[in-house]
Amino acid sequence: MVKLRAWLVLLACFASLFLLFLPVHGEGEPPFSTYLPLISSEPPPQWVGPYGGSVVALETDPRSPNIVYAGTFGAGVYKSTDGGVHWFPARDGLTNLMINSLAVDALHPSTLYAGTYRSGVFKSTDGGLTWAPVNNGIAAGAIVYTLAVDPENSSRVYAGTRIYKDEALPPWKGILYKSEDGGNSWRAVLENVGGSDQQDWVYSIALLPRDPNILLAATHEHGAYLSRDYGRTWSPANTGVDDLSGRAVLFDPRYRNPSVAYMGVWHRTGFYKSTNDVVTWNLLAYPNVKVYGMALDPQAPENVYAATFSNHGVLKSGNGGQSWAVTGLTNELVYSVLVNPDNSALVYAGVVSNGIYRSSDGAKSWSNMSSGLAHLNVTGLAIVPGIPPRWYAAVYGRGIFLSTDQGQTWTPVNSGLGNLNLRGLFSHPTSPTRLFALTEGGLYRLDAPSSAWMKLTLVGEDTGTAAKGSVPPLPVSPPDPLTLLMPDGAPAMQTSALPSTAMLTLAFAPSDAGVAYLGTGGAGVYKSMDGGLTWNAAGLNGQSVTALAVHPASPQQVYAATSSGAVQRSEDGGSTWTPIPAPGGSVYALATDPAEPVRVYAGTASGVYRWDGSAWSALGLTGRAIFALWADAARAGRWIAAGQGGAFLSEDGGMTWVELEPQLRALNVNAVRADPAEPHWMFFLTTESGTLRRWVR
Questions:
Q1: N- to C-terminal Cα distance for the chain?
Q2: d(Cα 57, Cα 368) in Å, to the nearest integer?
Q3: 403: closest CA among 81, 683, 660, 55?
Q4: pTM of the full structure
Q5: What DSSP assignment string belongs to 155-214?
Q6: In Å, how far are 105, 209, 211, 212 from 153, measured between CA atoms?
Q7: What is the DSSP letter of 261?
Q8: What are the pLDDT digits (tens) for 297-338?
Q9: Is residue 58 within 8 Å of 338, Cβ to Cβ?
C-alpha cells in the first residue's frame, strides 16, 4: 500500500509538471502544437510571414461562428478560431493547394469539403486539420468551382466542375456531380449545358434552406438552371435574363412559397432577382460591375453583399438588392465575401494578393486581417542583428518587407526599388547592414536602417538578350493567380524568357567577404572585389546562371550552373571558365563542402548530387527537385536540402536523408537561411506559404 501511494505521488508530480510546461496558446494559434520540455525542449515551428495572398473561398462554422475557414489559391486552407483575427494552416493531406471552393456540413460542422484546381474534391472530418481526396466518380483533373452540402442530409453533397484545358474555347466539359454518401462516390446530374458543343460548367450552386430539394445553379455562359427534385432533373430558368454569364446565386432563407433568389453575373450587367420561385427574373441594374461572389446576412437577409473585380470592391444592398452602395476595398480584386451568421456586423472579404479584410461595423470600414495567413512566394531573407533584430523578406511581385517584431507584423520597404519581381535577397557576410536585392530589373543595395534602395551598375559585357534555356519553374514564380482565376477561359501557364537584367543568384567567397559573384538571367557572371559595391563582367556572357558556389578557402575558384544544365568552373575568378560534367538535368543550387573543399553539392531537378573532383555521385531524394542546399559549417557532414515537397536533413554528408518538417511536405521551398544570432533557428522560404521558422538542433 505504501508503494502504491508513492507511485501515485510520483504520477501526480509528473502530471503537474506536464501541465506546467504545456505552452499557452494565443488566440488563433493551432491547438495541436503542444510539446513537453521533459522530453524535448525543441520549440514548435512558427509561420512568420509576410502575410497576404489570394483568398478565393470563405466559410464559417454555423455552430461556432468564431471558426472561419479560408481557401487560398496556392497555399491550401487556413483556419481561424478567433473570428478571423489570426490564421493558421489547416491543410495536412491536401496534395493540391490551389483551392477553388469550400463547403461546411451544417449538421456536422467539423466536416468540410474543399474543391481544388485540377485535383477534384478533398474532405476533412476534423475541422480541416487533416484531409483526404474523395473523387470516386469525378473525372480526373476536375476544377471544382462550387460545393454545397444539404442542410438536412449530410450525405448529400454537390460539386460543380469542369476539366482543365489549355484553350478557352468550348466544349468546356462542365459537369455538376452529386454524392449521396458524403463524397465516397459521385455521379453526374447536370452535364452538356448548352449542348454537347458547349458543355458549360456551374460556377455557383444554392440550396433553398427551407426546402433543399430545390437547387439553383449559375452557369458560366448559360445563366440559371433549376432543379426541384434534389438535382435529379434540371431545366434552364432564364426568363427575364439578358446576361447569361452566371457567377453567383443565393436564396433568401426567409421564403419558401414562393422562393426569393438572386443571381450575379460577370459580364458587367450586375444582378438579377426572382420573387416567384425562379419563374422570372428582374434586373437589379448596377452597370459595369463584374460580380465574383455574393453573400446574404443570415440575421437580416435584406442585407446582400457582392464581391467584385471591377473597381467596386464590396457592394452592399440594405433593401434586398433594390439599390447598392460601394462599401470600400475599391483598390482590391475581391473574390469572396462572407457574413458571420451570429453577428451581422462582422463581414469578411477575400481578395487577390492581399489576403483577407474584415469589417466589424457592417462593411462601413475595413481592416486587413491576414495575420498568420501567408500565401506569398518568399524568395529571400536577410537578418540585420540588433535590439530588436530587423528581418527583411523578399516577396516575388511585391518587393521587400521589414519586420522588427520577429515576424508578427511587416511593412513594405520599396523606396527606390524599380522592380518588385524579387529573385533573392542577401546580406553581406561581415557587414550585415548592407543588403542586396536581386530583381528582374537589376541589382539594388540598401544600407540599413535606411529605407531607400540604390540601383547598382554592372560594368562590362551585356548583350541585352533574353536568357537562354529554361529557369527553375517553381522557385521563380507561381502561376499568376489573377490569370487563372479569371472566369472567361483557361489560359495555359506560360513562362516568358528572362531579360539579361534579371539577377538570379549571389554568392560571397567564404574566405574573403570582399569577393562576390553574381549570376544573371542572360548576361553571365559578374564579380565584385569590394564587397558588392562595384561589379564587373566575369564571363559566361549570354548565359543564364542559376546557381553559384565559391571554394571555402580560395575566392578565385568558383562554380556556376547555367540554365542549359551545364556546370562551369573557374580557377581565376571568372577570367576563364571550363565545363565539367553535368549531374544531369537542370541544376538549381550549388554549395561547397566546408569540411571537404574538393566536394561540390548540386541540387537538381532529380535530387542531390556530389562532385568529388572527377565525377558526380547521386546522393538521394531522386525524382525531387531541390532548389536550396545548406551546409552546417560547425558540424561536418550535416546538410539540409530543400525544394519540391519540403526540406530534408542529412547527418552523413548526404548519404541518407530524413524529412525535417511535415508542415513543409506539400510546399516548395525556395531557400534556407540560418539566424545569425541563433544558428539553431532556420528559416525555410516557400513558394506558396511564406516563411517557416524552425528550430533545428
A1: 44
A2: 16
A3: 683
A4: 0.88
A5: T-EEEEEEE--SSSPSP---EEEEESSTTSS-EEEEE-BT-TTT-B-EEEEEE-TT-TT-
A6: 9, 12, 12, 9
A7: E
A8: 999 999 999 999 988 999 999 999 999 999 999 999 999 999
A9: yes
